[in-house]
Predict the 3D structure of the following.
Amino acid sequence: MKNGKLQNYIAYVDGKFVPQTEAKISIYDSALMFGDMVFEMMRTFNHEHFLLDEHLERLYAGMKFLKIPEPMSRLEMKKLYNETMEKNADFFDEKEEMRPLINVSRGILPIYQDVYGQALKPNLVISVFPLRWTIGATYPNYLNGISMYVASQRAIPADLLEPKVKNRSRMHYQLANLEMREIGPHAWALLLDTDGFIAEGTGSNIFLVKNGKIYTPEGRNVLRGITRRYVMSLAEELKISCEEKNLNVYDLYQADEAFVTSTPYCIVPVTKINGVAIGNGKPGPMVTKLLDFWNKKVGVDIVGQVKYYSETGTQSSSNPFVELKR
Amino acid sequence: MKNGKLQNYIAYVDGKFVPQTEAKISIYDSALMFGDMVFEMMRTFNHEHFLLDEHLERLYAGMKFLKIPEPMSRLEMKKLYNETMEKNADFFDEKEEMRPLINVSRGILPIYQDVYGQALKPNLVISVFPLRWTIGATYPNYLNGISMYVASQRAIPADLLEPKVKNRSRMHYQLANLEMREIGPHAWALLLDTDGFIAEGTGSNIFLVKNGKIYTPEGRNVLRGITRRYVMSLAEELKISCEEKNLNVYDLYQADEAFVTSTPYCIVPVTKINGVAIGNGKPGPMVTKLLDFWNKKVGVDIVGQVKYYSETGTQSSSNPFVELKR
Amino acid sequence: MKNGKLQNYIAYVDGKFVPQTEAKISIYDSALMFGDMVFEMMRTFNHEHFLLDEHLERLYAGMKFLKIPEPMSRLEMKKLYNETMEKNADFFDEKEEMRPLINVSRGILPIYQDVYGQALKPNLVISVFPLRWTIGATYPNYLNGISMYVASQRAIPADLLEPKVKNRSRMHYQLANLEMREIGPHAWALLLDTDGFIAEGTGSNIFLVKNGKIYTPEGRNVLRGITRRYVMSLAEELKISCEEKNLNVYDLYQADEAFVTSTPYCIVPVTKINGVAIGNGKPGPMVTKLLDFWNKKVGVDIVGQVKYYSETGTQSSSNPFVELKR
Amino acid sequence: MKNGKLQNYIAYVDGKFVPQTEAKISIYDSALMFGDMVFEMMRTFNHEHFLLDEHLERLYAGMKFLKIPEPMSRLEMKKLYNETMEKNADFFDEKEEMRPLINVSRGILPIYQDVYGQALKPNLVISVFPLRWTIGATYPNYLNGISMYVASQRAIPADLLEPKVKNRSRMHYQLANLEMREIGPHAWALLLDTDGFIAEGTGSNIFLVKNGKIYTPEGRNVLRGITRRYVMSLAEELKISCEEKNLNVYDLYQADEAFVTSTPYCIVPVTKINGVAIGNGKPGPMVTKLLDFWNKKVGVDIVGQVKYYSETGTQSSSNPFVELKR
Amino acid sequence: MKNGKLQNYIAYVDGKFVPQTEAKISIYDSALMFGDMVFEMMRTFNHEHFLLDEHLERLYAGMKFLKIPEPMSRLEMKKLYNETMEKNADFFDEKEEMRPLINVSRGILPIYQDVYGQALKPNLVISVFPLRWTIGATYPNYLNGISMYVASQRAIPADLLEPKVKNRSRMHYQLANLEMREIGPHAWALLLDTDGFIAEGTGSNIFLVKNGKIYTPEGRNVLRGITRRYVMSLAEELKISCEEKNLNVYDLYQADEAFVTSTPYCIVPVTKINGVAIGNGKPGPMVTKLLDFWNKKVGVDIVGQVKYYSETGTQSSSNPFVELKR
Amino acid sequence: MKNGKLQNYIAYVDGKFVPQTEAKISIYDSALMFGDMVFEMMRTFNHEHFLLDEHLERLYAGMKFLKIPEPMSRLEMKKLYNETMEKNADFFDEKEEMRPLINVSRGILPIYQDVYGQALKPNLVISVFPLRWTIGATYPNYLNGISMYVASQRAIPADLLEPKVKNRSRMHYQLANLEMREIGPHAWALLLDTDGFIAEGTGSNIFLVKNGKIYTPEGRNVLRGITRRYVMSLAEELKISCEEKNLNVYDLYQADEAFVTSTPYCIVPVTKINGVAIGNGKPGPMVTKLLDFWNKKVGVDIVGQVKYYSETGTQSSSNPFVELKR
């Protein structure tokens, strides 16, 4: 990786290209007043932007739900996105993948519009940094699986705060992560919804495998992850049954296998729940099957790439929440 | 008012004094990732900072609950706050009051710490602007009272997202405001909690008056406003019974009077609920009594000041949410 | 009692005085379409209309909440009420008490207004019949107390259907009564609210006595009975503590005494809950104390009067719901 | 239409045929005491009574659930129904359709049985009036679609008040309609259930279309409309997937199309939710496809008929709830 | 039956074989402190232990969930189970079937470990007695069906107390049974969950039949009975649709047939709900079909066997809860 | 302490005095079938049985609620209790305190009554052992305070399983304890109720102190501890305000002091919540004040006694749940 400093990367911020350390939002912006911002984070495989249209579709769906005016058409935004990526192209050699980010906020609160000296309009930020920063230290997760614990923090029901809108008003995820600090650096949070069903991780969707079939919570009180949907389509192609269903923690105890999905990590095995082994306590064959198929689809050895990053230095840890404990 | 542009005001941001248009937060800050920021907004009476210690106490309570490390001691912060106010003193002649703001976020996410080129630490912003910007157009509210409507959006219960912590993860307030847009510019949102009790406005506490006694919702699924507590203390001094109680919308329909409280507005009468008059549909004697007593305490004619602002030009509207409809 | 047939009594119906068998409502009236009607039922003591103003106040409060236009002023209605009573005066000798009734519905649905041949307006019915019809067979209840059973039917929470508005949309009371039929003619329904607290009977409020203090459920998911409030005022005069409180069924099991209140019955002891004796299983001293005081206030021996009715023939049974089982 | 006055139409009421202005219920009837009445409203296509057996089945199911004794066998009732229709046949020329209505209540309350001068028995009313009165002004709804808003009023859960029983204890529907008055005459109420899922309109079922598939809420906290089931059967014949599913408001925002169903209107497009366009904001191809198929089935141009009614005079408005605002 | 006294049967208790009257647990055992014990009860057909592996699987699943250490491997337990059966073989002639029982508790509480004079370890009990004792008096149930009533006691949600773990902390089942005592000896309890859906009986699963299809509640707030699953597999083999679904009490009222399942009883028809006939109020053809098929599978006339027990003397009643009323 | 082995102590079991290792319950007892047993555990001060009448009162209240027949009158039981204590008197020198225990179960299930060879009757066990066994290792708790963590396990609401009845169906307490094992041996479980309010520890009541006033959760979803009530009476005597109130976890974070109460421990300070210091993180003056007053009342230095036990050997640990992790 040529470049380890954020300031060298270029971001599009509200009409201009600037160093990413200048990618900032006014404290008078609705984003900082209410968590009133939608966003998407993507990744590449061999520099191909993976499922970009799906991410943009969800971004515009979120703006519609929150009634944030569209800063530009979807086509124009895609063009601007590509332009931003090109400006950063030199920082990514063929071994590096990109981790792009789009933020859209409603902009400066109306109350400040006259004094702010600019028209009232939504605020768009596009940036990118190396995927390595996010996943570089996570190789052990693929080898051993991660350990999840049911947090006392519950997921907020969709009629109170819609998790299907990828928004920034989600202090409760942070609080669940902070709970895990008390258990230890190995612990990942699992949220139940207020009905007592398994909902999601704090940034990932969960699946379990029982008797050769895959199950995942109904897309109700969870972010409907784009990776979640992709894994469902992989299963369909592989003729593996994959069903959305109300799941109890009991079902996870009795599962043969479990895994979480997210854009940067793709698929990570879960091998323990509340300190007890799931199945034989080791990553299982379904994860391997799905990852192998995925590797073929995108022409990248997903886990191999993580291993390479881990061997060539990185800046993060296997559990991104561990440093919260300072 | 000497100065109508934000850029002329000075803010303390992360160690430096800068023009307020530079009061910005990195998109990699936890504040913008999770709504993970606590804040306080104050006001002055005759340039005296009103209940500043109470605001600081709540700010530190929020940091403790969210486990945000304290950026400095409470004493040091107060000193810095005063320093910031002094730097802006010239912009406030004797007729103008200040509207100061303190933000504390957890800072850059750990995942970006190595690349961001700075140590991992909480982020502090202190700023101030004229109170006139917030309340200058609200004179009609005091004359006629405001009209509240029960939103379909409910307050989020305290065990899911603690409203007593004044934090920035509150998209649901914004959604309730957006609902009101459909009713009209005169409509203010009233949130019920998930038990069906009256909770709060989106930034104010609510009180009702019945047979000479004052009632307000229990301090449970609401922000425990500092003005709310102050009004309770005024009532106590005036020997008026003021009780925290579970209240239904029915109680509001049957009330003799109702009002909301907040730091910038102090006390604003509520004269309609869901389109129906409360009492005789006019501001009532209890509001007058409380405001008169408050005026005496702080040596300012609160409503008179708002009238003056409205007659001398301002930048906001009587309902700060009306411009949301652009 | 001079007169045992309904047809002899006169009712005011929508502008005219008619025999009570003609006191009818169109099937196109909102009352019959939605249960969209408010009502009050009163009683007299020595022909004095007891707490009439309080009943009228609640009637008008209900109209306000349901946005039913007022058919006339409160004063005019009182006049019309008295006029209706006078027209029936001959049927009530000095031993008989009256059981008057006021109904107000929104009137014919707008959809039928053009074809119905009359202006769109609320519909008012005032009628009266002998109290004896309601309470004449209930003397055993005062002697032995009644037996209540927790129904599987729960009270509907106030934010879904406001029980404090005395309205006709209350099929759930009927369903609770129908449940009791399966236990036997001695069984009276006790409703819990959805929080699991004791709410009310199907037409009565409940109180319990423990260590000399009286407790009754908070006025939340219940009709705030006018007799309930009157009993609270009696207690206050007698310097007996009477507190509104969240009560569990457990509290009723552990009570020393319990009783229900309603307009026609005044106070009836409850001596069993779910088949188990409350206290010593007999009517207790608190009921006697309250009734004695009440007797003095109104100059009527309340229980003696019921005894007299029972000895002189009546048309109802001790449990008005038993005949449901036909 | 020959006849615009209700009094000319004949109703069967409790054993007699009378002018419909005499179709009335005693104030001592359980229907007016508790909303304790079941009913069905039908319509014809070319004078054929559509799905009459299904309506009668649901009517008898409701009586069973509420334990209202059957006033006669289903066969006898059908005979009486037909007789009533024949008595009104002259009022319906070939362009007019009928809107029949059956009401069954439990009858006079037992407490009044001795004095009422008649045996205790359920009360049956059968009537009919022109469909034009209901739908004559609704042509714009088919052209432009209707606009729905999520009401703050929630649907009452089935375990508290069973919506699958078509009964008259439904003040909460009226309250939701009254909420819409505050938004404007264009607004139709959409009820969520207490789990936050989409339930129903106040008298209609809702469907959405996404990627060529149809979805409707599970038949749980809703009236299981006969038109709802018919539309599901149309979809099945047309080989279009139609699934019952828990749906969030988010799903409606993201739908390609939406529509409501009810007996008189058949299918009406929904083109806006909370003020935001669904799909392209216009009635979509699925509604057309279903209506075309339905037209063929019944030999009536459903929308054409509504258009004809609108052009030849009518008594109702496009939103039957608008006149509520008087 | 050779032997009518419990003391003659042999039980394995904590390492020893003893008379069953000695099958006891210390009051200091976690089982008696917290209801902290998992168990299984089996039955034989022609002395073949039916679905034993499935029962053992569920037993070990419960231990895992409750984190009770396994006292031995599943294979060892099976061996010990068989050994226990053999020791009792003489008491079972060819007409008698066995009713075996396995209990595993966590053992003596740690606090007592030093004083108790034995190592801290889980406690295992295996016993067996004649099936006749459980089902010998239940022949009328098969002939006439049983009558179920919705209890006011609700099922405890799975996230509060997991019903899928067959454990001994279930006072609430007992409380539901005690409610039924008040209705009469014919009444069996039906539990709703807190969402208002049908959950289960107090020791049985419930199914309903509508239009030739079978439905049973989702396996969520219920014990997932081994007989429940077996009946689902019988239906599958018979090509009868059998679906898990959220069911309301309304669905039971409208069902053509209903039945409950449990290990000792297999399948018992339910012919009344809340006092109202289901279908024609008689056991229906689906129960016959399933039982016939089951008979063939196991080579036993299930109902015939119960009839035989009833004719040759027994010790229980048709409703095992009736004696609760002593 | 003369005697460290359980077998030397004498218990009353079902009519006989036996060594305590024989204090056992049949597996066919309702206690082991349903957790269907009520109990009380007492303690002495200077060999005086503390609040024995209050414990007996609660025991009989529980029997009444669960409809367990009383095995004898309260007076007879007290006599038997004293007799049992006398039989064990020799084992308690003047430095030792007693920890007596009473268990009452419903007895053998009716289904087994004929075969069990004994009449169907409730089962009574009375035993006693040294208090030292329970509290001997807890001296550090008084010195440093304990650390509580909010468990993901919630308290079961009173309408589902009444916590005010001290019964044995409480696997959920055990599950909360097992959660704490994952955090560490220092962690004590704090249960919230399903409304999100603080309920209780798993065997203790919780109090907090703020501005010199004491608060404790309403006696609703908690065991109403006898020590809880005693502490409230101490506060009253000391003229310290002590209020029952709905409390959020936030309130605990902001408290000046907190403590738990239980019969054996009396009062133990809580100095951390979720890893964060309460107040200054040290036992506070209110605990000292209350304990000092208590010491005077009973003539025992409560903490000094614990210190003595810890210095003279004991069998338990400071957290009785730590050994769960074996």
User: Anything to note?
Assistant: The radius of gyration of chain D is 20 Å.
